[in-house]
Design goal:
By secondary structure, this protein is mostly helical. It folds into 3 domains: about 40 residues, no CATH class; about 30 residues, no CATH class; about 55 residues, no CATH class. Strands 1-2-3 form a 3-stranded antiparallel beta sheet. The radius of gyration is 21 Å and the shape is flat. The termini are far apart. Bound molecules: zinc ion. The site of zinc ion (ZN) has 8 residues, from loops.
Length: about 150
């Protein structure tokens, strides 16, 4: 949830809490200034309380946690249901999918990591239709690779 607070009001009144004036939906990116939407975390475009149920950030490991503990805490947060939306355009998503498909072939990846990459990228691929989708799905099959032609 991204709220846009009026800090000038905060400074001029000496209040400790600034009320958000607008709210930006983490799913579709629409901003609403309607006080009821702001208060409830409601998105009039999605017709859902999108801001209310999504975290601003993923849960964090305690201070002083080791590298392993940080990653372990993220795994636990995911098992507990933590999720975040992704706002991305079609070309950037294409680049991300293609890059994930390359990484997916790395011989040192565990089956668990390979499965996570595949399921995440397949969510993005499901946003495409027609020829674009066919090309992206072919990216999982090395026999479909096209020779790289460097630009001159
Ligand atoms: Zn929305």
């Amino acid at each position: 949830m991204k709220t846009n607070e009026d800090h000038s009001t905060l400074e001029s009144t000496g209040a400790t809490i600034a009320a958000p004036l607008t709210i930006t939906c983490p799913i579709c990116g629409m901003t609403s200034a309607h006080p009821m939407d702001v208060r409830a975390g409601y998105c009039p475009n999605c017709h859902d309380f999108t801001s209310a149920r999504l975290p601003k950030t993923f849960p964090e490991a305690p201070p002083g946690a080791s590298d392993v503990e940080v990653v372990t805490a993220l795994g636990q947060a995911e098992r507990d249901g933590a999720r975040a939306p992704l706002l991305v355009g079609p070309f950037t998503a294409w680049v991300m999918i293609s890059t994930l498909q390359l990484a997916w072939r790395h011989p040192n990846l565990s089956e668990d990591m390979r499965g996570r990459i595949r399921r995440g990228a397949d969510q993005l691929i499901s946003l495409y239709a027609g020829r674009a989708r066919e090309l992206l799905e072919a990216g999982w099959d090395p026999t479909q690779d096209q020779p790289f032609q460097p630009r001159r």
